[in-house]
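Sorry to interrupt, but I need a hand with the structure work. Please put the record directly below this note.
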Amino acid sequence: MELTILWFVLIAILWIGYLVLEGFDFGVGMLLPILSRNKDKAKQDTERRLIINTIGPVWDGNEVWLITAGGATFAAFPEWYATLFSGFYIPLFLILLALIVRGVAFEYRGKINDDRWRARCDQAIIFGSWIPALLWGVAFANLVRGVELDAAHQYVGGFWALLSPFALLGGLTTVLLFLMHGAVFIALKTDGEVRVKARRLAGWFSLASVLVAGGWAVWAQVAYSVPWTWAAVVVAAVSLVGVVLANAKAREGWAFLFSALAILSATVLIFGSMYPDVMPAFDPANSLTIDNASSTQYTLTVMTWVAVILVPVVLVYQSWTYWVFRRRLSTKDIPPPIGLSLRKLKDSAFGGPSSGSAKNLDLTPATGEKASGTDATASGPAKNGPGDTSA
């Protein structure tokens, strides 16, 4: 196998890993206000912390797949990287902004014991989950459909040109797939009332995914793809039906495997439709291919040896992480909120009265609680440290 083909396949595998693993992270974030809807504010917060704790130990590790995919693209196909990131600048910037906001919200939600603070962090998590879930689908749909490139392989279309009906349907497809994936994952990782609600939502989203994702996949296959990718379409369809059946029988493990297989098959359809291009153009003569976008043979050879050594290490470590945090969580595993309490001071820090509308806040640990800490995770009792994000 030529190294250019090998690295195209490896980059596709990295994207499969990212979309499967980060897909349920996005789904969990999008479902946060739905699954935790409760008139009892204390119970609502406990359920939200439970939901966030299902991905607390793993969400940041899942994002490594995106960094690796981006780095591999930059090194193996620099022309592809340059054209993609310049042409898709606005959607990729919005995705990056959303991921940063979501990560900060995960890490700092439990640092301050204040309802308004946690509500704002929840809004950031929801925003940071919906935007990437939608825009990744839009971006990949454009790679299947093709974009407007000139003879120098530069994108000459505008932002709005990326929002075609086919691309928007692709965005809706990824949103529904990730909602289904996240709901199945929450049902797999929780117990009690949250599990029941998650299973119910997983059923609805899996049915919606069969219709919407199935429609987009057939459109992509008929209009833009090659004959052999019909196999990916069939596998995706069977997998979505498998999610519906397994979820109905409360077999969350099988439902999650089928859900992951559906996302895997959709990604195979995307990359199979692109090949041998990496950036298809409306005019085939202007398309970037794996040959005219690749690095030198020496660079690809060095990268191959590095990947052979490091990729197995990453896979083993991440597999071990999921094994350690494998058990189910319930609201009984979530301790009372831990964090700094906000108290308005009557006098300023300099001894005088507080002036005007200035808000002098005293950040002190809540009575009888530590200033920092974590909730229980999927492996057992809580430990202080960055592993938990939802105290």
The radius of gyration is 23 Å.
